[in-house]
Write a structure and sequence with these properties.
Layout: H1 2-17, H2 20-49, H3 63-85, H4 91-96, H5 98-104, H6 109-142, H7 151-175, H8 179-196, H9 200-203, H10 209-212, H11 214-218, H12 228-251
Helix pairs in contact: 1-6, 2-3, 2-6, 3-6, 3-7, 6-7, 6-12, 7-8, 7-12
C-alpha cells in the first residue's frame, strides 16, 4: 500500500507539472460554459444567417437543449481530448527510462498499472464533474424550466464509459510501445462497440449505451434500470481489462 500511495502521488504531481491537469480542466470548463450558451444562441444565429426571404420556426430552447450540448460535446470532444492527453501513459516513461529505474529498485509492477489507472480516473472524474457543475449552474440560470431529469445518473453513465476507455487505453499501452498504437487500439475498440450496437439484442449490454442514451434518460424516455445490464458489463469489463494489463505488464520485457 505504501508503494501504491507514493507512486499515485507521483503520478498526480507529474500530471500537474506537465500541465495535463490544467489542460483537461480548462477544456471541460470551456465546454461547460459553451453548452447552455450554444443552446440559447443557436436559434438566433440560425435566424440571422438564413437567406433573405427564408424563414424557419424553431422551438423555444430549453434545458434539454443545454444538456444535449453537454452530452454531445463531452462524448465527442471531451473524451477525445482525455484519451489524447493520456495516450503516452506508459510509453513516455519507458522511453525516458525513469520507470525502469523505479522497477529495478523494487517497485511492484502491479502498483504501476493500478496507480496509473487511478490517477487517470481522478483527472477524468474532476474534468467531467467540472463541466457538469458549470453546465448545471448556467442551465438553471438560463433555463429554469425543470424539464431535465436523471441528471446525476446520466452523468455517472458517461463517466463509467470513460473509465472503461481509460482501462482499454492502459491495456493497449502494455501491449504496444508507442502512444500511437495505444490510440489505434482504443479507437478500434470504440468502432467495434459501435458496430455491435447495431444488433438490438446486444444494445442493452453494450457499454456504448452508457454514452448514447444519456438524453433518453434526461428526457425520461427510458428508465434508469434499463441501463443496469450495460453498467454491469462495463464494470466487469473494466476489472478484466485492468487484470489483463497487470498480468501482461508483469511478463513484459522492458
Amino acid at each position: 500500500m505504501k508503494h501504491y500511495l507514493v507512486f499515485f502521488k507521483k503520478e498526480l504531481l507529474e500530471y500537474n507539472r506537465t500541465y495535463k491537469l490544467l489542460i483537461l480542466l480548462l477544456v471541460f470548463l470551456i465546454l461547460g460554459i459553451m453548452n447552455p450558451l450554444t443552446a440559447k444562441l443557436t436559434p438566433d444565429l440560425l435566424a440571422k444567417f438564413m437567406p433573405e426571404g427564408v424563414s424557419i420556426t424553431l422551438p423555444e430552447p430549453s434545458s434539454l437543449d443545454s444538456w444535449a450540448q453537454f452530452y454531445k460535446n463531452v462524448t465527442q470532444m471531451g473524451l477525445i481530448v482525455t484519451i489524447l492527453v493520456f495516450s503516452g501513459v506508459l510509453s513516455s516513461e519507458l522511453s525516458k527510462g525513469t520507470l525502469i529505474i523505479l522497477l529495478t529498485k523494487g517497485l511492484p509492477r502491479r502498483v504501476v498499472i493500478l496507480a496509473k489507472y487511478m490517477s487517470m480516473l481522478v483527472l477524468w472524474s474532476a474534468s467531467i464533474l467540472t463541466s457538469f457543475l458549470v453546465t448545471w449552474a448556467y442551465t438553471v440560470y438560463i433555463f429554469p424550466d425543470g424539464k431535465s431529469a436523471n441528471l446525476l445518473f446520466s452523468m455517472f453513465c458517461l463517466w463509467l464509459y470513460g473509465a472503461l476507455l481509460l482501462a482499454v487505453l492502459l491495456l493497449a499501452a502494455t501491449l504496444v510501445k508507442s502512444s500511437y498504437g495505444s490510440l489505434l487500439i482504443t479507437g478500434v475498440v470504440v468502432v467495434l462497440l459501435t458496430i455491435l450496437n447495431i444488433a438490438p439484442a446486444i444494445q442493452q449490454y453494450n457499454p456504448l449505451s452508457l454514452a448514447a442514451k444519456n438524453m433518453d434518460l434526461v428526457m425520461q424516455n427510458i428508465e434508469p434500470s434499463s441501463l443496469f445490464p450495460a453498467i454491469g458489463v462495463t464494470v466487469l469489463a473494466t476489472v478484466v481489462l485492468l487484470f489483463a494489463a497487470v498480468v501482461i505488464f508483469r511478463k513484459k520485457q522492458l
